[in-house]
Structures are given as C-alpha cells and as structure tokens.
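Priority: medium. Attachment 1 of 2:
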C-alpha cells in the first residue's frame, strides 16, 4: 500500500511537469510535409529505481526533420487529469486508468531523462518516404484533443505497445519478428524488471493470477520497452531488409540496477514473523500470555483478510488482465477479516474453532501440494503461510486444552 501511495504521488507530480511542457510544445506541432531526409525513431528509455513504475523503463517515438525544423518526441505516458483526477487511486486499482499522448520537443524530453540519470537509446527505422509521412500524420492525429486519451493497460496497451502499433498500423509492409527460443511468461518479465525491488516483486506475485504464467510470444513481450527494443533490432520486412537501420545512445545511463544483496527481504521478514509466531504459540499452549496471542491473531488475520479483499477486488471487480484465477486467495482470503470480528464474540467461539481447524487443514494441504498448483508461487510466501497455519492449529489445540 505504501508503494502504491508513493507511486501515485510521484507519478502525478512528474506527469504534471511533463504535461505542461508537452502542451506548450504540441501547440507548435503541425502536420507539415516531411522531407526526404526525415527520420522516425523508436526511443527506449532505461529503467530507474526511483519508484516501482520506473523499473519498467519507457518508450517514445521521435520524428526529426532538420530541413523543416521538426524534432518532436511523442510520449504515450502522460496522465489525463481532466477525466479522473478525483478518483485516481480507485480507478488505478480497478484498471480504469486513462493516459494520453502528446508531442514534446525532443530537447525537453531528453532533459527530463538526463536530470534523472536515465539513458535513452535511439533506433532509426528503415521506412520509405510515404511510410514516414503516414506515421507522422497518424501521430499528429493522435495528439488532437479528441484522440489523445486512451485506456491504459499495463500488459496490452501501454506506452510501449502504443508506439509499436502506430508504426505497424501505418506502414504498407509486413514486419516479421524473430521468435525467441527462450520460453517466458508475463510473470517472468515482471519479476525481471522488479529484480532490484524485492517488495515490489513480492506484491506483484501476490496480485497476479496464473494467467500470467502462460508462455507468451515475442509480440506479447513488447509491453516491456527493453523487449520492444530487442524485437525491433532483429525484425525484418518480408524482403529481408532490416526494420532498424541505425542505433545510437542519445543519453547513457549512470544508474546501477543490479540487485543489492543475496537475501530476499520479504522472505527474511516472513521468517522473523514466523519465529515470533512460534514463541507466542508455545507460550499460549502452556497457558501463558493468552491476551498476547489474541492481539497477535487479530493483527495477523486482519492483515491477511485485507490482502484477501484486495485480491478478490482485482479478480472480480477490476479490469486488470491476468488477475484471475489467483491461488493466493487460499491463504489470503476476505473471510479472515470477517472472522477477526468474531474473535471477541463469546457465543461464536465454537464456530471460530471450526474455522481454524478448516483453515489449518487447507493451508497444510496448500503447502503439501505446492509443486502441483498451476501458478508460479513465490518461495517468500512460505513463512507467511506457515505462520497462519501455526496460529490456526494453535487455536484449535488451546481450545481442546481448555476443555
């Protein structure tokens, strides 16, 4: 939740500055006829560890024609304030987030990334004069007020796929991708991008369902800017000519995004929580510190229940892709939040015991069938699942002892 709040605040601030510059620049963007020396390029911006959404990098398109004084970067990553500012967080979680495209002077675009020490690699595309003019006209049409806004989707319709589609939809030739022999899934790519942010990776693994574990094609991998750049590098037209005729670094990155340390922070914290759980459980079984055990259970199952509510919302009420089915709903489920309110209702204690017994058996089976579950589950989940299992088992045992 903290990561989501920081993401929202930083993104709004960044988008506001970018949008202001973009609006000023776009007023000067006109559908002039390009000359024969015009260039259309794919710009791939390197990732940053400043926040979780910057870990994925960024993509833009550049149109440069010195003879008519045009050098514009088309950015599909601007947030549309007018449509949903008041309900941003709700729409963000639900998946109804609207972004917009605008044209900004390339020098302003470069300045922003230079300031943040992020690199930009340019791939000049091998297009005919007619194809360049067609793409240019499509980009100009896209930044018109009535066409700027689009429904963002982080897997299927983001800044990277929009840039690719506007190219391929407006050239007269078919582009062929070189299919990689490496079998990857959406989850593999998301984990790869969040390798330096263990908690971000942990959260993504919780909310993404098993649809994200199906093998994907090179075309589907394009939602990650670095993979789109890789696809373009090896892509050819049907006659064998390359899609990219030249590459160069407009800005070199100065950031080191290699993982820091070999210990997985979520797993380490989970082990620490499990150790505390075992100590409390031993005391409770011996009939000591019962109030502490009840407080601990209230906190533990409340957090698990809130996590379950988030997963349930994403599965059944959001339009985010690859959220359902999600096997994490077995150990994080909304029912736990309901049970917490019954912890302090004396007549309900018998039914609470039944719940703990069922929960204990279910979580134990979940752990035993770990390798058979059709979803890539993070090993960092294990100590948290054991913690819930231990506390449910302890509640059953202590009730039997009391009897």
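Attachment 2 of 2:
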């Amino acid at each position: 939740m903290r990561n989501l709040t920081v993401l929202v605040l930083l993104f709004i601030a960044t988008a506001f500055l970018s949008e202001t510059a973009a609006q000023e620049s776009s007023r000067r963007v006109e559908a002039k006829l390009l000359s024969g020396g015009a260039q259309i390029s794919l710009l791939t911006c390197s990732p940053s560890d400043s926040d979780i959404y910057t870990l994925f990098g960024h993509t833009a398109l550049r149109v440069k024609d010195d003879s008519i004084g045009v050098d514009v970067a088309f950015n599909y990553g601007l947030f549309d304030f007018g449509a949903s500012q008041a309900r941003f967080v709700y729409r963000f979680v639900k998946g109804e987030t609207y972004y917009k495209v605008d044209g900004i002077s390339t020098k302003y675009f470069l300045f922003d990334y230079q300031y943040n020490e992020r690199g930009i690699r340019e791939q000049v595309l091998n297009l005919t004069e007619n194809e360049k003019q067609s793409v240019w006209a499509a980009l100009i049409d896209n930044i018109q007020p009535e066409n700027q806004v689009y429904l963002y989707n982080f897997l299927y319709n983001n800044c990277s796929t929009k840039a690719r589609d506007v190219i391929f939809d407006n050239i007269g030739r078919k582009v062929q991708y070189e299919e990689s022999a490496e079998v990857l899934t959406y989850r593999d790519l998301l984990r790869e991008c969040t390798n330096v942010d263990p908690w971000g990776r942990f959260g993504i693994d919780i909310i993404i369902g098993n649809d994200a574990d199906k093998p994907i094609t090179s075309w589907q991998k394009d939602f990650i800017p670095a993979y789109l750049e890789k696809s373009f590098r090896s892509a050819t037209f049907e006659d064998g000519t390359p899609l990219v005729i030249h590459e160069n670094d407009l800005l070199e990155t100065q950031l080191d995004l290699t993982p820091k340390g070999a210990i997985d922070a979520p797993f380490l914290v989970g082990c620490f929580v499990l150790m505390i759980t075992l100590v409390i459980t031993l005391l409770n079984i011996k009939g000591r510190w019962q109030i502490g055990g009840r407080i601990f259970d209230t906190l533990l199952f409340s957090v698990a229940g809130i996590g379950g509510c988030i997963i349930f919302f994403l599965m059944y009420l959001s339009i985010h892709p690859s959220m359902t089915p999600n096997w994490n709903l077995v150990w994080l489920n909304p029912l736990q939040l309901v049970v917490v309110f019954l912890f302090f209702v004396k007549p309900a204690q018998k039914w609470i015991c039944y719940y703990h017994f069922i929960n204990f058996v279910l979580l134990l089976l979940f752990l035993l069938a770990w390798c058979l579950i059709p979803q890539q589950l993070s090993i960092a989940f294990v100590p948290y699942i054991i913690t819930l299992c231990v506390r449910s088992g302890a509640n059953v045992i202590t009730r039997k002892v009391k009897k």
